[in-house]
């Protein structure tokens, strides 16, 4: 005999036979494991892909660390900034709000004209040219436009467009398209949703931009790279000190920069999803491995005894069953990696539409794949550990004996005297459920997991939908809003009111400010609104209008929490609109809001306070819908207007952007929920069949019909499914709560909202999956071997 | 697996009558169970006919066979085949619930001397007690035909005797045609009629002049 009896052919053949015999159940487990692996790879892979694209892009295009906008500073002020310790590179620019006319589009388009240093592509925030080139130094008629804007309008290098700067119309020729780390996501000032058709970024040489805005020898924007992340706070404070007298709006760091902030939020969301989704699958897989392998080994005690009696060691018998588990886990992982790779590239493809990176492609690091393999294998081994240890510890002689039959007793319901008239079949069902309460409970939990997962995913959609409908229907009653080039006298409101189609106008004034209470401080935009604002009401949690207090500052709950203040407390306010006055103000009111940090006060008090005559820098308009487009074109042409947006456009844009993401999400959620619930119910059914098929065959012999036996199998399964429904919904609610809390931040929060339709959808999927799984197993009752069971012992 | 045709039964021609207590003897593998399964509507012969009370069982479809078993046949198996989650009484009720003219389940248990154990689960009963519950279950529907496949096969002598007594009493009190399969010659002495099977054929069919009581049997 050869000295390697560990894995002889016989054992290997037996392994294959075992695998084949359990193929349905193992396939169900494999689907759960594969889904876990696939979601893990999708979420973490997308996270990697986005992070990598971001880091490379930021690094190669030298994205700045500190940014500051100001009114106007002479170039020599930059020398002072460069001397701030920690500042590595520094670049001054002229950045201006513009209005655009694009051939073939009648929309009211606004944008931003960004200067490039006269003779280089710059030190920081360098545009990445995709097509064509940057404007030639000295050329006054050349611009490079953001690639997303060019695509939205079908613009090519060689096309021309008109820019209205400072009331002058200037024709430019497009010489190229580019992307920029500053504008991975482009959101127009005041807008909620990015819209590439209505807002564009243009780059031109500094001389052109400066002369158009009367900024020769001066700048209104500065970016800096900083050495060592510890010095950022110091640099921010120093920059504020230097630029204070030049009308600074306050220095900000990357995390406050709009584009980067949106990206960070997305990455955070992905990170929390990457934790929740795969863990759910792996927990269910663990449970399924435990019950299926446990059952298989219990059913194979006699075989194990024979193997051991023939001299197979405990280890080789353990290895035999262990390798079955590993085979399933590995095959599943393989499937999961393939599916995950595909899902990840779809997801990254969706991201590529909303995040403008020159090179965003799906990456799947081998280390990540290896991690997924390890997770899947450990789920399998941990799940089967008890059963495997049991089989190894089983002495050959004992294995020959049957395991002691489990004792039954009347159910709780019967013991307390209820259900005395329960039909016999239901007594069988209930007693079996009660006999192994732990397993029944885990089975219920497993079946519930699918619905919970689906519900929590739908909660995210419901929540976003609610915030938007609250925003659009309750908080924002205007049809069109206008941002002005700068503060204007209050008579601008009358000027707007006279335009054809305008039915109502409310002017507002937005002032950036830093609000302090003790050592805590936050940077917010203070919104000055008419005291009796009807277009921008304050509402409570239920959407009911709150009166807007005349006295003091009204702040959001999040801001109140961040600062640790309550109505009646006073805070210190430092205006950052170039007039940098500070003063104390009493908190008059705290109101709920999803937009995180925010503050508002009556327009008159705010402007009195900034020292101006009553003034506005924007207005909300109610207009006749059939005159809206014409009116928006008129508005954007007005010298005082810097940008125009409409609610209809924002809603449309949001729907376009999110509809596909939501369909993508919903599709996978439903699939995963079905796999989880279906997989658990199917395995529960198969195990019931394996353990009690004999019992049912006996009943068939005694004259019970197939349909009467089915009641026992399906009744038990569907009873457990029924019990799992409320648990599923409860878990889903908790999961939704956790997810939303982890996705939200100080900048915004998502309310926990679940529409009845989402509950209905989750329940429907759970019920459908368990009905389908039950029926799949029910077919096997037709082939129950009646004679076979009579020959063998229980 | 190779294609080997096994003839479990060959050329069997047999008539059984109401009220008879029949013991079928034969070595293991001789076809006893096959005969019983065919008579009970669990199996169908590849050729030949089985008639019962004017009907042809061998031509019946699945649904008709189920109804036949449900209404006419009582089974007792070597391994009892009780439902572990049901008490003794409930195991009997399992059958009476679907029968046309059943006994009271408790009466059926009384016939096998187990009325006091009616609320015990199979796990709380000895093998012999379980088998007596199985007999109570089989007779409770007042079957026309009581088929018992090695009912004492898994039991010791004393317990086996109790089980046989229960069968005999039932046969006497209800006039049920009772067929007991065994490879145990001794049991034949309590039967009205003894069939011997060997190699799939009926090789003997005799009637006992005097019947012995089960407790007089030894093996
Ligand atoms: N499912 C089956 N497939 C093939 N042969 C069978 C099957 N069941 C029984 N047999 C064969 O039929 C013959 C009679 O079996 P059986 O009626 O169980 O014998 P007994 O009950 O007298 O011991 C035996 O040779 C047995 O091997
Ligand atoms: Mg037999």
Automatic annotation (TrEMBL), chain A:
InterPro entries: ABC3_permease_C, Lipoprotein-release_system. Keywords: Cell membrane, Membrane, Transmembrane, Transmembrane helix. It is found in: Cell membrane. Residues 277-393, 668-781 form the ABC3 transporter permease C-terminal domain. It is a multi-pass membrane protein. It holds the Pfam family FtsX. The chain crosses the membrane at residues 20-41, 275-297, 318-343, 363-385, 441-460, 664-689, 710-737, 757-777. GO terms for biological process: lipoprotein localization to outer membrane. GO terms for cellular component: plasma membrane protein complex. Belongs to the ABC-4 integral membrane protein family. LolC/E subfamily. This is FtsX-like permease family protein.
TrEMBL record, chain B:
GO terms for cellular component: membrane protein complex; plasma membrane. Residues 1-219 form the ABC transporter domain. This is Putative ABC transporter ATP-binding protein. Pfam families: ABC_tran (PF00005). Keywords: ATP-binding, Nucleotide-binding, Transport. Belongs to the ABC transporter superfamily. Macrolide exporter (TC 3.A.1.122) family. The keyword Transit peptide does not apply. PANTHER family: BLL7988 PROTEIN, IMPORT ATP-BINDING PROTEIN. The keyword Electron transport does not apply. It comes from the Bacteria. One of its GO terms (molecular function) is ATP hydrolysis activity.
């Amino acid at each position: 005999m050869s000295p390697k009896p560990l894995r002889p052919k016989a054992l290997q053949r037996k392994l294959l036979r075992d695998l084949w015999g359990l193929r349905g159940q193992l396939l169900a487990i494999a689907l759960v494991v594969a889904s876990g692996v696939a979601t893990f790879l999708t979420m973490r892979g997308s996270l990697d892909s986005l992070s990598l694209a971001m880091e490379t892009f930021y690094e190669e295009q030298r994205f700045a660390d500190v940014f500051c906008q100001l009114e106007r500073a002479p170039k020599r002020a930059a020398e002072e900034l460069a001397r701030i310790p920690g500042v590595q590179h520094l670049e001054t620019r002229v950045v201006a709000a513009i209005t655009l006319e694009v051939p073939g589009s009648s929309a009211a388009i606004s944008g931003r004209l960004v200067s490039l240093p006269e003779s280089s592509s710059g030190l920081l925030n360098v545009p990445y040219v995709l097509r064509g080139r940057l404007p030639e130094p000295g050329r006054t008629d050349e611009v490079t436009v953001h690639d997303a804007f060019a695509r939205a309008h079908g613009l090519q290098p060689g096309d021309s467009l008109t820019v209205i700067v400072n009331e002058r119309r200037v024709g430019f020729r497009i010489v190229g398209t580019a992307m920029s780390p500053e504008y991975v996501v482009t959101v127009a000032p005041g807008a909620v949703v990015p819209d590439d058709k209505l807002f564009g970024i243009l780059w031109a040489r500094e001389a052109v931009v400066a002369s158009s805005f009367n900024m020769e020898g001066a700048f209104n924007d500065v970016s800096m790279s900083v050495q060592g992340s510890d010095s950022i706070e110091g640099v921010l404070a120093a920059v504020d000190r230097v630029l204070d007298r030049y009308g600074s709006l306050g220095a900000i760091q990357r995390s406050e920069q709009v584009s980067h902030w949106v990206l960070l939020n997305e990455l955070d969301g992905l990170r929390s999803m990457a934790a929740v989704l795969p863990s759910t699958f792996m927990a269910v897989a663990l449970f399924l491995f435990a019950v299926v392998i446990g059952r298989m080994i219990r059913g194979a005690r006699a075989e194990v005894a024979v193997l051991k009696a023939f001299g197979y060691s405990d280890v080789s018998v353990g290895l035999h069953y262990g390798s079955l588990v590993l085979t399933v886990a590995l095959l599943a992982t393989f499937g999961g990696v393939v599916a995950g790779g595909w899902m990840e590239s779809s997801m990254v493809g969706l991201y590529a539409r909303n995040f403008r990176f020159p090179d965003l492609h799906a990456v799947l690091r081998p280390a990540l794949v290896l991690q997924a393999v390890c997770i899947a294998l450990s789920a399998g081994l941990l799940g089967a550990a008890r059963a495997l240890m049991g089989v190894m510890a089983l002495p050959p002689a004992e294995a020959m004996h049957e395991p002691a039959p489990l004792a039954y007793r009347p159910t709780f319901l019967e013991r307390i005297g209820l259900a005395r008239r329960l039909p016999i079949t239901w007594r069988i069902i209930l007693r079996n459920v009660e006999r192994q309460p732990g397993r029944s409970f885990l089975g219920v939990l497993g079946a519930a997991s699918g619905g919970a997962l689906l519900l929590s995913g739908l909660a995210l959609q419901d929540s976003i939908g609610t915030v938007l409908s609250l925003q659009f229907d309750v908080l924002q009653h205007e049809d069109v809003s206008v941002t002005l080039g700068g503060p204007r006298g209050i008579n601008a409101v009358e000027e707007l009111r006279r335009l054809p189609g305008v039915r109502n106008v409310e002017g507002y004034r937005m002032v950036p400010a830093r609000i302090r209470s003790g050592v805590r401080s936050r940077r917010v935009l203070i919104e000055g609104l008419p005291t009796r604002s009807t277009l921008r009401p304050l509402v409570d949690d239920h959407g009911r209008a709150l009166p807007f207090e005349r006295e003091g500052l009204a702040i959001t709950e999040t801001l109140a929490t961040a600062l640790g203040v309550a109505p009646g407390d006073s805070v210190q306010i430092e205006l950052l609109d170039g007039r940098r006055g500070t003063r104390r103000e009493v908190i008059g009111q705290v109101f709920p809001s999803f937009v995180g940090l925010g503050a508002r006060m009556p327009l008159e008090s705010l402007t009195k306070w900034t020292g101006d005559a009553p003034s506005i820098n924007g207005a909300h308009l109610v207009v006749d819908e059939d005159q809206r487009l014409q009116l928006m074109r008129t508005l954007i042409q007005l010298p005082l207007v810097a940008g125009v947006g409409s609610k209809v456009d924002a809603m449309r844009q949001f729907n376009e952007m999110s509809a596909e993401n939501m369909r993508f999400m919903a599709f996978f959620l439903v699939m995963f929920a079905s796999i989880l619930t279906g997989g658990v119910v199917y395995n529960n059914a198969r195990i019931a069949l394996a353990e009690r098929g004999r019992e049912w065959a006996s009943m068939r012999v005694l004259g019970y019909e197939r349909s009467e036996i089915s009641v026992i199998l399906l009744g038990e399964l569907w009873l457990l499914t029924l019990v799992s429904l409320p648990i599923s919904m409860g878990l889903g609610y908790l999961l939704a709560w956790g997810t939303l809390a982890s996705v939200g931040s100080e900048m915004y929060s998502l309310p926990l909202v679940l529409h009845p339709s989402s509950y209905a959808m989750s329940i429907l999927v759970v019920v459908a999956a368990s009905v389908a799984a039950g029926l799949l197993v029910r077919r096997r009752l037709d082939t129950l071997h009646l004679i076979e069971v009579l020959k063998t012992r229980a | 697996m190779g294609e080997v045709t096994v003839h479990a039964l060959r050329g069997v021609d047999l008539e059984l009558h109401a009220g008879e207590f029949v013991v079928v003897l034969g070595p293991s593998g001789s076809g006893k169970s096959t005969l019983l399964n065919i008579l009970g509507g669990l199996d169908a012969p590849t050729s030949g006919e089985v008639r019962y009370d004017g009907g042809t069982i061998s031509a019946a479809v699945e649904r008709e066979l189920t109804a036949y078993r449900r209404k006419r046949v009582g089974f007792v198996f070597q391994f009892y085949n009780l439902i572990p989650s049901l008490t003794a009484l409930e195991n009997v009720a399992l059958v009476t619930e679907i029968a046309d003219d059943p006994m009271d389940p408790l009466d059926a248990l009384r016939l096998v001397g187990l009325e006091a154990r009616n609320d015990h689960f199979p796990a709380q009963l000895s093998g012999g007690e379980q088998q007596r519950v199985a007999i109570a279950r089989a007779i409770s529907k007042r079957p026309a035909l009581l088929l018992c496949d090695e009912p004492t096969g898994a039991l010791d002598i004393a317990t086996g005797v109790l089980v046989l007594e229960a069968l005999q009493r039932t046969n006497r009190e209800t006039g049920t045609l009772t067929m007991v399969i065994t490879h145990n010659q001794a049991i034949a002495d309590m039967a009205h009629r003894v069939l011997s099977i060997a190699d799939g054929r009926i090789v003997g069919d005799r009637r006992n002049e005097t019947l012995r009581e089960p407790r007089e049997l030894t093996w």
